[in-house]
Amino acid sequence: MAEHIFSMEFFPPKTAEGATKLRETRRQLAQLNPRFFSVTFGAGGSTRERTLETVLEIQGEGLGAAPHLSCIGSTEESIREILQTYKAHGIRHIVALRGDLPSGVADPGEFRYANELVAFIRKETGDWFEIEVAAYPEMHPQARNYQQDLLNFKRKVEAGANAAITQYFFNADAYFQFRDECLALAIDIPIVPGIMPISNYGQLARFSTMCGAEIPRWLAKKLESYYDDSASIKAFGLDFMTQLCDRLLTNDAPGLHFYTLNQAGLTSTLWQRLGLSR
Ligand code: FAD
Questions:
Q1: According to a count of CB atoms within 10 Å of the terminal CB, is the N or C end of the chain lower?
Q2: How far apart are CA 45 and CA 12, in angstroms?
Q3: Does the CB atom of residue 43 touch ligand 1 within 6 A?
């Protein structure tokens, strides 16, 4: 069986204090030896410099790093410039996304969907980059329907994506169903589940509504019952996520991508509980 692909996601810190904290987080998580760390890219390019700086810092420590790149609201020229900068710095791995227009911005720019970005990256840079794209086992919230969303996912693969990372989910069956439907459409790239450790329920509920990730009713009720007892939320969340990840890996998920929110604690505890090797 192929080796599992483990990766971990950060957002680029806004302050010097945040950057120091992220270095410490990274020091702890690097001991787990994930294949790469990815760094998000703010809507409309708002973190362009900070994403690059963070990726270069990670790369400078001898670790695998992949910047995210979102295209909505951008021109071809600005994306070309970013790709050239990445290439000049020896970056070879990228997470290619459409992104969402910042509120108040109406002009979608020269790219409408992520498949156009993937095609553009391939046209401009050939096979230089390994390209990851996003996948949505519970359907992207703006998709017309489930089937269309699947076909739109396939467009990204046909445009040249090498692998996908999913939106987080709490229902393993949604992932298995999605994976089976992809296979039926001859989509055979690795589709790595995105894992969101549970810490702050209020924040998680708000974010899940926005991004279309379902918190099953029983799980929401259970988490709500702890009110603001964050230690119990984390303890229960860890038990739940350990079972979810275990079920995914046992049933042939190709790996796991951890949304760390720049914290090491929950990801490394989950890692230990799963008995993953370094
Ligand atoms: P697309 O694949 O383009 O899909 C968007 C919608 O359009 C879907 O509903 C799809 O069905 C539809 N669609 C796609 N192609 C077509 C087509 N050709 N014709 C008609 N309809 C189409 N956002 C950020 O801003 N920065 C980040 O760093 C970031 N990182 C992310 C990492 C992961 C792993 C994930 C899962 C999401 C991330 N996001 C990030 C969020 C992402 O940008 C949003 O979910 C965005 O709304 C969709 O991006 P996408 O690349 O999936 O878009």
A1: N
A2: 12
A3: yes
Q: Ligand 1 centroid vs 35 CA: distance in angstroms?
A: 23
Task: Report domain extents, the chain.
Answer: 5-197+234-273
**Probe residue for ligand 1, chosen from 140, 154, 192, 211 as the CB with the greatest number of ligand atoms within 8 Å:** 140
Q: What is the pLDDT of residues 14-58, one digit of tens each?
A: 999 999 999 999 999 999 999 999 999 998 888 999 999 999 999
pLDDT digit string, tens, across residues 182-235: 999 999 999 999 999 999 999 999 999 999 999 999 999 999 999 999 999 999
Does the global pTM surpass 0.90?
Answer: yes
Packing angle between helix 76-88 and helix 114-125, nearest 10 degrees? 50
Annotated catalytic residue within 9, 116, 132, 138: 9
**Cβ(48) to ligand 1 under 6 A?**
no
For residue 37, what is the enclosing H or E element? strand 36-39
